[in-house]
UniProtKB/TrEMBL annotation:
This is Large ribosomal subunit protein uL1. One of its GO terms (cellular component) is ribosome. The gene is rplA. Protein L1 is also a translational repressor protein, it controls the translation of the L11 operon by binding to its mRNA. Binds directly to 23S rRNA. The L1 stalk is quite mobile in the ribosome, and is involved in E site tRNA release. Keywords: Repressor, Ribonucleoprotein, Ribosomal protein, RNA-binding, rRNA-binding, Translation regulation, tRNA-binding. It comes from the Bacteria. NCBIfam families: rplA_bact (TIGR01169). It comes from Intestinicryptomonas porci. Part of the 50S ribosomal subunit. The keyword rRNA-binding applies. The keyword Iron-sulfur does not apply. It holds the Pfam family Ribosomal_L1.
Length: 228
């Protein structure tokens, strides 16, 4: 059993065991003692889907109205590296970038690729895929409008993807955000997730929802907030 600190135990007690409205969950988190660094805040979901079925896969993106609070390092796979760098990319290139990745380098948060570059990028799928870094048309990271894609990512577009156990988390900001900004971001995340519900799922989609920060216990969110 993991031994929890007194601070964690106190926070867990203040959070309560009952499910709360989204607004009250944010207030409960705000009332917990903060760590010495600016913790990341996220909503976590247990979904009622079968991860083994391709038509029940859940993934998507959400444009957070108040941003994620995170400095996002963007890599663009393109034959025109100069244009991508001028548009705000932190790293850009094609064969040279792929060689670095094959050598173990993954110091970036989001990868964008032009359509023509994807044929070459697929050779790094074994490295990028498991880390959620593989460019994908559905998430808007395979595009020829590189400048717009970079701008959206830097402005607060967050990607999410369900794991093999039907769990999914969406970053909604930082503990330094005001309760109002966290609530706005949380609502946007909920709307995005429900819009990503697979057509194959006709009944209940979400089993549970919790709100937490990096070092805090989870606060249960009422399923009524997702309409279930």
């Amino acid at each position: 059993m993991v031994k929890r600190s007194k601070r964690y135990a106190s926070a867990a007690k203040s959070g309560g065991a009952e499910a709360k409205s989204l607004e009250d969950a944010v207030k409960a988190l705000e009332g917990m003692q903060k760590a010495k660094f600016d913790e990341t805040v996220e909503l976590s979901f247990k979904l009622v889907v079968d991860p083994k079925q391709s038509n029940q896969m859940v993934r998507g993106t959400v444009r957070l109205p108040n941003g994620s609070g995170k400095k996002v390092r963007v890599l663009v796979f393109t034959e025109n590296a100069d244009a991508a760098l001028a548009a705000g990319a932190d790293f850009a290139g094609l064969d040279d970038m792929l060689k670095k990745i094959e050598g173990g380098w993954i110091d970036f948060d989001v990868a964008i690729a032009t359509t023509s570059a994807m044929k070459e990028v697929r050779r790094a799928a074994r490295v990028l895929g498991p880390r959620g870094l593989m460019p994908n048309p559905k998430s808007g990271t395979v595009t020829d409008d590189v400048a717009s894609a970079i701008q959206e990512v830097k402005a607060g577009r967050v990607e999410y993807k369900m794991d093999k156990t039907a769990n999914l988390s969406i970053v909604i900001g930082k503990r330094s955000f005001s309760a109002e900004k966290l609530l706005e971001n949380a609502k946007a995340a909920l709307q995005s997730l429900m819009a990503a519900k697979p057509e194959a799922i006709k009944g209940k989609f979400v089993k549970s929802v919790t709100l937490s920060s990096t070092m805090s216990p989870a606060v249960k969110v009422a399923l009524s907030e997702v309409g279930e």
